UniProtKB/TrEMBL annotation:
It comes from Agrobacterium albertimagni. This is Serine hydrolase family protein. GO terms for molecular function: hydrolase activity. InterPro entries: AB_hydrolase_fold (IPR029058), RBBP9/YdeN (IPR010662). It holds the Pfam family Ser_hydrolase.
Amino acid sequence: MKVSDAEILIVPGYTNSGPDHWQTRWEGKLSTARRVEQAEWSKPVRDDWVARVAEEVNAATKPVVLVGHSLGVPAIVHAIPEMKKKVAGAFLVAPPDVSNPEIRPKHLMTFGPYPRLTLPFPSLLIASRNDPFGKYVHAEDIANAWGSFLIDAGE
């Protein structure tokens, strides 16, 4: 599939992705990429974020490739039941452990727990070994549950 054959939906995490973030650069470079905007970036509400992801997927006129980072990952996964079958694949980076009671800020826990289901589309999950929001072993666990191909990004 060529970039022009898909709508690439960028799904940032907590506090959005700033001008130097890799997601912002991809959005600027990829002609069919656009950001899923959230009403509230610094005080995320799970139901609102999930609804926005599902709305954007369902409004797409081409197959969708989802590019989620951090809190964007659980927003994507929780939106799956509301999505029409338009998703061609997902690139999921740095999924936070939203079930960990040590996560800060605490309201991020409202995005957990992650569903334990095989994703209905191909996916790559990229995780590092020194992410303060999610241990690598957590990423391995959810990648296995989802049937995602796991890529070790190192430290």
